[in-house]
Amino acid sequence: MTTPTTQASSRTYGTPAGRSHAAPRLRSHRRRGRQSSASKPQRSVLLTVLTGLVLLYSLVPLIWLVISATKTQEGLSGSFGLWFDDDFALWDNISQTFSYNDGVFTRWLLNTLMYVVVGAGGATFLAVMGGYALAKYKFPGRKAVFAVIIGAVAVPTTALAVPTFLLFSKLGLTNTPWAVIIPSLISPFGLYLMWVFANDAIPTELMEAARIDGASEARTFFRVALPLLAPGIVTVLLFTMVATWNNYFLPLIMIKDPDWYPLTLGLNAWNAQAQTAGGEVVFNLVITGSLITIVPLVAAFLLLQRYWQSGLAAGSVKE
To answer: pTM score, two decimals?
Structure first.
């Protein structure tokens, strides 16, 4: 038997008494269903196709390089470029690359490692110290320094190649490793990146606490700030290492002695032999040397990838 109160409530809301609690429950289910459908990522066919094309554009040259490195000189011209030849000659090509012309490839590889360790390592160290100082110390002319750094980032390195050559020629440093190392020590982009990263990664309160405890400025930097800057340091190191490893134009105008060539100039010299009278055609060695050249860069990116990604994401979220 229905009571008067229940009848009045049913008339007020226009629903039967037995369904008075079912309607809100159904509405909540529908609301959750709409929210779950809205939270699902929308798939875009156009974006998927464009991403696939970019991936294909990036991988095809690498695949061609790996496959071509397994072919002999005759196999390069007598077989399809994106498939293996009957004669698998990768190990023979690697052996010939390191032994050709009295093993000069090894000398070029060591030269490149020297330019990267001294040049890129020094550029990273200077960028870290400069970025830290600009981010955490207040001094007159700080805004002017910021403007100069931004302007230096905008200037292409090729525009500075000729003035740099004239300067080093006056100093008598051309055709020496210093002509490649000293310009590599300057990285405006790395300095700017460390400036921005240090500004967000190092709390000022933490530095003040270290000073109150009696730590000197040098100890505060090396013991407190440097561990916090590790992701940014790795990021700048990767950028400067790739730039120095692939540097071609600066060594081209600075160095004439083949004994001081980096890998970029050395492989280009082997490639140019085919266009000289009486020169030996060694395209298989050029391709194999190019494959060997990119292996250290790929290994560095794979080993330091997690630090690199965290460094790029630093400061993107405000807490």
So the answer is: 0.79
